[in-house]
Design a protein that fits this description.
The complex is a heterodimer of chains A (about 120) and B (about 170).
Chain A lengths: L1 H31 L17 H15 L4 H12 L14 H28 L1
Chain B lengths: L1 H25 L12 E2 L4 E4 L5 E3 H4 L5 E7 L4 H14 L4 E8 L3 H11 L5 E5 L3 H5 L7 E6 L2 E7 L4 H10 L2
Parallel strand pairs in B: 4-5, 5-6
Antiparallel strand pairs in B: 1-8, 2-3, 2-6, 4-7, 7-8
Classes of the chains: A mainly alpha (about 120), B alpha+beta (about 170).
Amino acid sequence: MNILKFLVSVIFLIYFFSSDLKAKNLEIEITKNLRCLICQGQSVYDSDSEFANSLKILVKKKLNEGLDEKQIYVYLKDKYGDWILYDPGFSKNTYFLWLIPILMFVFGGAIILKKVILNKKKL
Amino acid sequence: MRTKIFPIFLIFTFSIIFYVFYKGLQNTNIYTPEIKSEIKIPNFDAKEFFSKDKVNSDQIFIGSNYYLLNIWASWCVPCKEEHKYLIDLSEKENIKIIGQNYKDNFDNAKNFLINLDNPYDYIFLDYDGTIAIEWGAYGVPETFLIQNNKIIKKIIGPLNEKLAFEIRELTQ
């Protein structure tokens, strides 16, 4: 009986810590995706500024309130704009940003193709 | 001819680059995104500064009065600089100044108000800085002009003569 109790408590403890760890991991993941607005080139996770520390507490609070990752991003975007997210969504302000690599690829490809064809003709 | 054009072109390009970077040195390097004007104020719970009574933001910002929310802390040096403008504005009848005490030590904050005078009609505590984030603030000092539960103007950094004048104009 004692062994059974011991086992149950061990399983409970493992479960408890692992769920705690999961929550912690999500918190870290979210704060890594947020830009510290008053620091240069640091994420909220990396920074130890007053702003970043408050934001870490807030993310934890919001997770406890039951918000998911996306809802937290939307919430913070409302307050601080796209700039706070390291991965800005596709919107009318950012479509240029997202399309530039594709445009460069297409134009570059076109230039290379043209050169190759011209060279072949010369030969 | 070709040999002359190239150095001139090079000097021209570099001088343009130099000019752009030199100008850029004087710009502030804190990027502040454009804020949609007239944002609704957030709803939050806080504690009153002196009595530590619980209070909701609905009880602080009522009706069509003008409110000036000022985020401050005793450890913040620019807050001392802007304090005289707040005291000037507190003499204005139609505007209520609300203080948000940001991550501060109570005794230090109290001494700050005793030494520099208290311009605030009401002060609430923001002990972990999360209420400042609800406002979309970056740090201290920061000031918001509020009417009808909407933010009319947001000032990042300390007040100065020009900004204090602007607030007076807006609340005429």
